[in-house]
Design brief:
The protein is mostly beta strands and 209 residues long. It has two domains: 2-38; 46-208. The protein is built from two helices and 15 strands. It has helices spanning 2-16, 25-38, and strands spanning 46-47, 52-55, 62-63, 77-84, 88-95, 101-104, 115-122, 126-133, 140-143, 149-153, 156-160, 165-167, 170-176, 191-200, 203-208. Strands 1, 3, 7, 8, 10, 11, 14 and 15 form an eight-stranded antiparallel β-sheet that branches. It has a five-stranded antiparallel β-sheet with strand order 2-4-5-13-12, with no helix packed on it. A two-stranded antiparallel sheet has the order 6-9. β12 (165-167) and β13 (170-176) form a beta hairpin. α1 packs antiparallel against α2. It is globular.
């Protein structure tokens, strides 16, 4: 998070110190504005060993680099755990709040997730497992319970992975290795990062650990 703040402050400095005689101040300042509000930096990986647990700072969701939004507790990571077993992987994720429904499918279909709560495992291969929702372009109030658990290996989609179980502000799911045998490679993971993200009206809201 300190890295994000440093880069964000650097961009603000550039924004404020633009040469007033520059022929393109408006374009450059607008570019800086876009970077600060529509971009998030990649999460920093940490070492992984199963069973894995983490605790995250509450209240650190950002819109872009520095803006602190309100009413996005469903993106605010609190803690979580992973238990890699012989035939399955058990995930638990706690966020500040879990609403019954969320506004969904508001963005155009452009290949980027509209909502995401994911674990990314890195070794010789990269796996991403989590709640990932792509907009279908038809706005609706979508039940959180209906979001799907999806799995990718090296950015290649492998399929769905279990169903959500929600209790209070905790999300729980199981991934069956018999259904997706490649998940056996998760035991070789060297590093991991956890990320939540939402794209709404051009803004990127994110939290990571």
């Amino acid at each position: 998070m300190q890295g994000k703040i440093f880069i964000g402050l650097s961009l603000i400095f550039i924004f404020q110190c633009s040469n007033p005689l520059d022929k393109k101040p408006i374009q450059e300042n607008y570019f800086n504005y876009l970077v600060l509000t529509t971009t998030s930096l990649p999460c920093h990986p940490q070492s992984y060993e199963s069973p894995f647990q983490f605790n995250d700072t509450v209240g650190d969701v950002k819109a872009g680099f520095l803006n602190s939004p309100s009413d996005v507790g469903y993106l605010d990571l609190v803690n979580g755990s992973i238990y890699d077993q012989l035939d399955k992987i058990e995930f638990q994720l706690k966020v500040e709040t879990i609403p019954d429904t969320l506004n969904a499918n508001l963005s155009s279909v452009n290949g980027s997730p509209e909502y995401e709560w994911s674990f990314t495992f890195r070794s010789d291969h990269t796996y991403k497992i989590g709640i990932v929702h792509y907009s279908n372009g038809v706005p609706e109030r979508m039940k959180f319970q209906n979001f799907q658990i999806l799995v990718w290996k090296n950015e290649i989609f492998l399929g769905g992975c279990g169903n959500l179980a929600i209790q209070g502000d905790k999300i729980h799911w199981l991934c069956d290795k018999n259904t997706i045998p490649q998940l056996g490679e998760i035991s070789q993971t060297k590093s991991i990062f956890i990320e939540s993200k939402q794209v709404s009206q051009g803004l990127v809201y994110s939290d990571c650990h």
